[in-house]
Amino acid sequence: MKLHPVRTYRSDEHLAREDQLAWKIAEVASEQLEPTAEVADMVINRVIDNAAVAVASLTRAPVVSARAQAEAHPVSRGGDGATVVGSDLLTSPEWAAWANGVAVRELDYHDTFLSAEYSHPGDNIPAITAVAQHLGRSGAELLRGIVTGYEIQIDLVKAISLHKHKIDHVAHLGPSAAAGIGTLLGLPTETIFQSIGQALHTTTATRQSRKGEISTWKAHAPAFAGKMAVEAVDRAMRGQTSPTPIYEGEDGVIAWLLDGPEGRYEVPLPEAGEPRLAILDSYTKEHSAEYQAQAWIDLARKLGTEHPELRDPANIVRAVLHTSHHTHYVIGSGANDPQKYDPTASRETLDHSIPYIFTVALQDGEWHHERSYSPERAARPDTVALWNKVTTVEDAEWTRRYHSLDIAEKAFGGRVEIELADGSRLVDEIAVADAHPLGARPFAREQYVGKFRSLAAGVLADAEIERFLDVAQRLPELTAAELGGLTVRGSFPAVTPKGIF
C-alpha cells in the first residue's frame, strides 16, 4: 500500500489531475486484476450475507416503498434490466440499486468496517450488481468490481473522518461504488475519475439522519448513494465532467465539509499490481444492530446466562459500560438523546441505543431481529427499569484500540462495571464480537449460509433457498445469462401509498 498525501489547494495553486485523489482512486479502479482465492471466497460470503438480510426485510415499510418505486420504472433501452429483490419484475439498474440497497441496509445487519470513519462496505454490492446484470457482464467481471468497491471504501474510511464534521458516512460510498462500476465495465481512468467526482459531489449529507429520532431514511441513505453512483458513471461515459478537484479544491469537500484549508490526510491505496485485500479487514454481524453493539450483545448474553440475578432490576444499582468515543457518543448515553431511553422509540432509534440493546440481551440471553425490537418488548416494565440504570462513559484505552490500524488489537467492545444492590461489584469485558475474525466463533462460509437459511426460512420456498445458494457460490464462474439468477425471487406485492411514479 502507498500513502497519498491529500490537502486543500488554492485556486491559484496548480494541482495536476494525476495528483488528485479522485484520479489516484480511478487508477486503482481501471487496473484489471484477478482477486486472490481468499478474497473471492469472501466476496461470495458477503453476497450471501447481503441476500440474507435483504430477505429478512422484504415486508418492512421502507423496503416495500423502495421496491414499489423500482417496479414503477420499466427497463431502460440500453440493456436487459436488473433484478429487484423480492420481485419478479426487472427494472433499470439505478432503480434496482435503490430498491436492493434499501433491502440490504434496512435491518442494520450486514458487514461493517470501522476506522477513522464508519462504513458498511456491502452497500457497494447492489449498485455494482445491478449494472452487471443490466449490461450482461459475467460473474468474474462482477467479482472484480465488488473487490474494487470494498477496496476504495475501506481505504477512504481508514484515512478520512466524515462524522467528526457531521457528514454522513455514505459520502465515501458514492466514490467507491462508482469506482467498482468502473472496474466492472473496464472503463478508462479518465471516465472513472469523472464519475467519482460526480458521485462524491451528489452524496454528501449531514448525519442528522442518524441523530435523535432516527427515521426510515437511515436505510435509504446508502441506497441513494448507490443510485447516484450508477447515474454518475452513465454521465461520465457520455463525456460529461465533474467538479475538479473535488476533494482538494478551494471550495471542495475538504475545505468546506471536512477539516478545512489546513486539513491533511494520508490515504492508503494499493500500488499497481498489488492485490486488493481490503475486504478481508471487514467483518459481518451476527446480530441485527449497530456494529458497536455486537460485542456488547455477546457479553450481555454471557452475563445473563452466568448470573441470572442480573436480569432483575431490583438487584442492580447501576451498570456502566466503559467504551470507545464512538460507542459512547453515537449509540451511548453520551449522545444526550432522550430517545435512546424511550420505550416508544422507533426501531431505527433502538438499534442505535446501546443501553437498550445491552439490557434486552442481558435479560433474554438472545438478540433477534424482530422480537428484540417489538414495542411490547421495549415497553416491558422490568426492562425499562433496568434500561435506565445502564449508561456509558468514554475510556481512552478503548478509544485508542477502536482507532488502531493493527487488526490484532483493534476493538469494538469495552468493560462493564455493575454495582449490585448487595454492595458487591461485577466487572467483565469483551474486545470483539464472537463472530469477528478474532472472536470466539468467527464467521466462515458455514455461518454465512446458516444466517441465510435462518433468515429465509418461512419467507422463501426451500427450492428458492437452495437455488440462490447454488448460484451465489458459483459467482466467479457465472455467465452473463446466469447472473440474472443472483437475486432472491418471489412475489411480495408492494402495497404502499401511491406516489408520483
From TrEMBL:
Occurrences of domain MmgE/PrpD C-terminal (ranges): 287-474
SUPFAM superfamilies recorded: 2-methylcitrate dehydratase PrpD
InterPro entries attached to this UniProt entry: MmgE/PrpD_sf, MmgE/PrpD_sf_1, MmgE/PrpD_sf_2, MmgE_PrpD, MmgE_PrpD_C, MmgE_PrpD_N
Origin: domain of life: Bacteria
A Pfam family of this chain: MmgE_PrpD_N
Domain (MmgE/PrpD N-terminal): residue spans on this chain: 20-262
Family to which the UniProt record says this protein belongs: Belongs to the PrpD family.
Name this polypeptide is given: MmgE/PrpD family protein
Organism: Antiquaquibacter soli
Species classification: Bacteria, Bacillati, Actinomycetota, Actinomycetes, Micrococcales
